[in-house]
Design goal:
- By secondary structure, the protein is an all-alpha fold.
- The chain folds into 2 domains: 363 residues, no CATH class; 75 residues, no CATH class.
- Helix content is 62%, strand content 1%.
- The chain is built from 25 helices and 2 strands.
- Strands 1-2 form a two-stranded antiparallel sheet.
- Helix 3 runs parallel beside helix 11.
- It is globular.
Length: 536
């Protein structure tokens, strides 16, 4: 399925889902009320099928993400020798020995500095990395990286950015098997399994309505397209950990939630921001006379789990954490063409939007793009600070007034979006949005997603027509803008949240407004006849 076809299909699917949600929220026509559970089940399935592009999978029709698996499978399996700086030069040297007929790439990204350099300039570094291998390990490495054809532009990417903790988790699956088609399929299934577990946890804790919303947000969301990380290797474990944490908070399992958030934070760092709204929520409760014990319990387990996970990464490779932290800081300081975040629309200039700063020979040479982002950030720093402060203020205000710990926890979405500019595929955290007020949150997010796909289709059409050069900034500046609008709407309507449902059953479809008087069948708010109003 081509990207243009995918945009069209996702537009249609999002429109259908949006119409169904509006009909469900208004309780008419009567068909939607009478068959509500089945419709919600259908929407859940629709989101899952939309994620895999209804069987279309990647643009070339393949199921697995060889590019990403090369980085995470090979990079983790041979991390003791490769570390963070040796993946590309070692692969090129192994390919030179096993397939001398293949011409070497002209340039490679020097993972020590992050710069694109001529291949000849890293000859000494290549020899140094080769010396870290024993002969047996080098033969295994050469067999693994020579098994598949790797395009030359793969050596212009940014290398392996997993934290040492995440690398040790990856090595549980990669260290004992060769890099082959069967192993690629095996480890790719891990994310699907984890997503299924996360979905079941959402269903058990929040009900079918919320599960349908999460499925639609993940399956249709522009940042969670199969194109980015479908068929990769443990790239959604942090997201599932956040879903599990929210479910545990909803069910009152505070310590389990703390351990799940700690895992997400130690493998991806930025999820630590989800802790702040929780702290604000419990402080507000303490001020109103409630016990401080939940905050103490969460903080202690979170700290103990984080330290333990840090130690796992440190014991695996003692010098890995300093290298990882240094690399992550450098990476975080760079605004990439496919970054999303609150600041992106404010620091994207016309030349960047038009593609004038793109190197025609490769999309990975973004020195000029990053420099332009930095220039506009410096020039508009006061505006970025002001908008960020307002956004963070709205978020913490909502956390102070949150009805439940789970509702406060989800506010971490807004903090991550405001305070960081992650690569687009980390925008999958928007799948947590429907955990609060599921029908309206999902509907608003779908509306934003429709705008995102329209913008992407327009950029692709304008590029094909020669009006601009295809580039990430032209897509992700409007995507960031539409996501920001959806978040602002979400935050402004957040104070209208109601208390959680008590004594709900796993099959209850609570959490949205249905114009139906048969409350005993549809579920109720407090075990009485009070409906939970969630109008579109």
């Amino acid at each position: 399925m081509s990207q243009l076809v995918e945009c069209i299909v996702k537009l249609l699917v999002a429109s259908i889902a949006l119409i169904a949600l509006i009909a469900l929220s208004r309780g008419r026509p009567a068909f939607f009320v009478q068959h509500r559970s089945r419709i919600l089940q259908g929407l859940t399935l629709l989101g899952a099928l939309a994620y895999i592009n209804f069987g279309g999978l990647h643009t070339d029709g393949t199921a697995w993400h060889l590019w990403d698996q090369y980085h995470y499978f090979v990079g983790s399996k041979y991390f003791p020798e490769l570390k963070y700086d040796g993946l590309y030069v070692a692969t090129i040297q192994a390919r030179r020995e096993t397939h001398p007929e293949l011409p070497p790439p002209a340039r490679v990204r020097d993972l020590r500095s992050g710069e694109l350099v001529p291949l000849a300039s890293v000859a000494d570094h290549t020899a140094q990395v080769r010396s870290r291998f024993s002969d047996d390990r080098w033969q295994q490495f050469s067999a693994d990286v020579s098994r598949f054809y790797l395009r030359d532009d793969i050596f212009l990417d940014n290398g392996l950015k997993a934290t040492p903790t995440h690398i040790q988790v990856l090595r549980l699956f990669s260290s004992w098997q060769p890099f082959r088609t069967r192993s690629i399929a095996l480890v790719a299934m891990l994310d699907f399994l984890l997503l299924g577990i996360g979905g079941y946890a959402v269903y058990r804790a929040f009900g079918l309505t919320t599960l349908a919303g999460v499925s639609l947000a993940f399956g249709i969301g522009f940042c969670s397209r199969y194109y980015w990380l479908g068929g990769a290797f443990l790239r959604h474990d942090w997201l599932v950990a956040l879903l599990l944490a929210a479910a545990c908070l909803q069910l009152g399992h505070i310590k389990s939630a703390a351990a799940a958030v700690a895992y997400a934070s130690m493998v991806r760092i930025f999820p630590v921001l989800f802790v702040l709204p929780l702290v604000v929520y419990w402080l507000a409760k303490y001020r109103s006379g409630h016990s401080i014990r939940p905050l103490v319990a969460f903080s202690s387990v979170f700290a103990l789990s984080a330290v333990s996970l840090f130690a796992v990464g440190w014991l695996g490779q003692p010098d890995a954490w300093p290298q990882s932290i240094s690399g992550l800081i450098t990476h975080a300081r760079t605004n990439f063409p496919n970054s999303v975040g609150l600041r992106i629309p404010f620091i994207t200039g016309f030349a960047n939007l038009h593609g004038d700063l793109v190197n025609p020979s490769t999309l990975y040479d973004y020195v000029d793009i990053s420099r332009d982002y930095a220039r506009l950030l410096s020039a508009r720093l006061w505006l970025v600070i002001l908008v960020t402060a307002i956004f963070v203020g709205l978020t913490l205000r909502a956390a102070w007034r949150a009805p439940t710990p789970a509702a406060a926890f989800v506010l971490g979405i807004a903090l991550v979006f405001a305070l960081t500019a992650p690569t687009c595929y980390y925008g999958t955290f928007f799948a947590l949005l429907p955990l609060v007020r599921p029908v309206r949150s999902t509907a608003v997010f779908l509306g934003a997603s429709i705008c995102c796909y329209i913008a992407a289709a327009l950029v692709l059409a304008l590029s094909n027509a020669g009006y601009l050069r295809l580039n990430g900034a032209a897509v992700f500046a409007p995507v960031s803008l539409f996501l920001a609008i959806a978040l602002v709407d979400w935050l402004l309507h957040y104070p209208r949240q109601t208390a959680p449902i008590a004594n709900h059953r796993p099959g209850d479809t609570h959490g949205d407004a249905i114009g139906d008087a048969t409350l005993d069948r549809l579920g109720n708010l407090h075990g009485n006849a009070t409906r939970y109003a969630d109008p579109i």
